[in-house]
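Re-run with default settings, no changes from the original entry. Doing this only to confirm the output is reproducible before filing.
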Amino acid sequence: MPRSADYFMQEAKRMKHKADAMVEKFGKALNYAEAALSFIECGNAMEQGPMESKSPYTMYSETVELIRYAMRLKTHSGPNATPEDKQLAALCYRCLALLYWRMFRLKRDHAVKYSKALIDYFKNSSKAAQAPSPWGGGGKSTGTPSPMSPNPSPTSSVGSQGSLSNTSALSPSTIVSIPQRIHQMAANHVSITNSILHSYDYWEMADNLAKENREFFNDLDLLMGPVTLHSSMEHLVQYSQQGLHWLRTSAHLP
């Protein structure tokens, strides 16, 4: 019988509290990473039967922040970085890549809806901007009052106001106003699609570190099967847990 989201939540909190109490930085970072894996399992369980208090998206988003925090504890670059530091960072980057990819997938339908609405809006705005002016050529009135004319009568002299061609009110503006709802849609769309960029960035970072530690990751791939951007969250967790177990053994951590 599959374990519940609440079970994984309690396990994650227990591991996080253990990490909170540690002083040694590598062990602390490793324990936070293990807690993050339980939070990922919690989010995955919530996708099967969501808890009312939180959404899987929120769980994954908060897990991203925990992993980032863990990675700040130990640097994986520079002359003092050990192979274990780099291996831990590569595992964390793999997790971040798949978390961001999953977060995008969870909100993909919203992104498609926003994209269609924005395309329609800007397409219609472009047509409106290209519509012919109610004013005839040569600056002469066609009999229709200009909405920018200070005088309501089309027969009023424009001489006192200067030439229409020099009227600043009719000059193209450098500021484009859009409705608040369109601005919000654009912001939401960018927020969702940025997850794809983050996912690929983190995946490349993981690849670069894995190339520096080929033996470790070749052995891990052989034992667990390689992780890809399309791997399930279950596979990601099992793969990462095995890698963290090897790192714990190598560092002689309890």
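The CA atoms of residues 95 and 253 lie 22 Å apart. Residues 180-212 form the longest helix (33 residues).
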